[in-house]
Design a protein that fits this description.
About 20% of the residues lie in helices and about 40% in strands. By secondary structure, the protein is α+β, with helices and mostly antiparallel strands. Strand 13 (about 215-220) and strand 14 (about 225-240) form a beta hairpin. Helix 2 (about 95-125) runs antiparallel to helix 3. It is rod-shaped and about 125 Å long.
């Protein structure tokens, strides 16, 4: 009996200890959420694409000399901005090219002397008109050869290749001291306003694109603000390498440098529906989009179809109740029928 009496206070103390009381089994936990009102409206529809800025094919000029020779100086480097007429490459003609020009000059002089002789003999009735015609043709042929060589730069010992317009030096293919062959590319210049962004678009979306449509360009690296542009050209065939449709986009000169990786949002029209905050759009177990509206203190799931996605808001289509608030923060933490609490602002 004494042992039982000693245990009794311990039992009483255990029942009166500091353990927290358990929640009533009838109470259900609720999720803290924020809400917003759905709004009717419209947003521009876009096609998202990715690509690179590069000189347009018709905005690039490759400089060369149609004579053999040696590069004596290269005053610029690849990537440099140049003014129209600025020196790019200094080139000295090979001795063989200068010798060929002197031979062509001598041939014209000889043909001229023969022409004058034929004309004098014809006046003395010692030559025929046919002989004079042949002499005239020899002079014309020699003049044509000499003019062609002059046009190809053979008449000068040293040539300075200059920028044909203001732009950027895309490539320099030679260095001082290099000996080159006729027609070899020495430098390539791209127009300042001739750089385009070329992006690849899914062929299924190609019929939605038209020249002149506005585009928002963003750098994939380095940040910076959005750059406005417009569609310049839409290819009618697939790019054999990417299996996509190439779309050229023009923008203000200098806003994007050649070689930069770019994302493009091409506007293709407008769509109407419900404008909702981007965090309000959740996914169900099957991966379908849905919203939750607050009805009677509980979350009610509403299936929707996302029409347009932006950074902070989306445009959706669905059977929303315009009078019921949308659950925004907390939409990914609730299920249909869950009790929720609205956060105080």
């Amino acid at each position: 009996m004494r042992r039982l009496a000693l245990l009794a206070p311990c039992v009483l103390l255990a029942g009166c200890g500091g353990a927290e009381p358990q929640a009533d089994a009838g109470q259900s936990p609720s999720t803290l959420v924020s809400i917003a009102r759905p709004q009717r409206g419209s947003l521009p529809t876009t096609v998202e694409a990715y690509g690179t800025a590069a000189p347009a094919a018709n905005g690039v000029v490759t400089l060369s000399v149609a004579q053999p020779g040696q590069v004596t100086a290269v005053p610029v480097v690849a990537g440099a901005r140049v003014r129209a007429g600025e020196a790019l490459v200094v080139f000295a003609l090979a001795p063989s090219a200068r010798a060929s020009y002197r031979q062509a000059t001598g041939a014209l002089q000889l043909a001229g002397e023969e022409q004058r002789t034929a004309a004098r003999l014809l006046g003395q009735q010692l030559a025929t008109r046919d002989q004079l015609a042949q002499a005239d043709k020899a002079v014309a042929d020699a003049q044509a050869v000499l003019a062609s060589m002059r046009a190809e730069g053979a008449g000068a010992q040293v040539l300075t290749l200059r920028a044909p317009f203001a732009g950027m030096v895309s490539t320099i293919g030679v260095a001082p001291g290099d000996r080159t062959q006729p027609g070899q590319a020495l430098a390539t210049v791209a127009r300042s306003d001739g750089v385009l962004v070329t992006v690849g678009v899914d062929p299924a979306l190609g019929d939605r694109l038209r020249p002149g449509e506005p585009v928002t360009l963003r750098r994939l690296e380095g940040g910076g603000g959005a750059v406005p542009g417009e569609v310049a050209r839409v290819d009618a065939v697939l790019n054999p390498r990417t299996r996509q449709i190439d779309v050229d986009i023009r923008y203000r000169p200098g806003a994007i440098l050649s070689g930069e990786a770019i994302s493009a949002a091409i506007a293709t029209g407008e769509a109407s529906g419900w404008i909702v905050p981007h965090p309000a759009v959740a996914l169900d177990a099957a991966g379908h989009a849905q919203l939750f509206q607050l009805v009677g203190g509980k979350a009610r799931a509403v299936p929707v179809r996302v029409l347009v996605t932006q950074d902070t808001r989306d445009l959706v289509a669905g059977n929303l109740d315009p009078g019921a608030p949308l659950i925004v923060d907390g939409a990914f933490q609730v299920a249909d029928g869950d009790a929720v609490r609205v956060a105080r602002r």
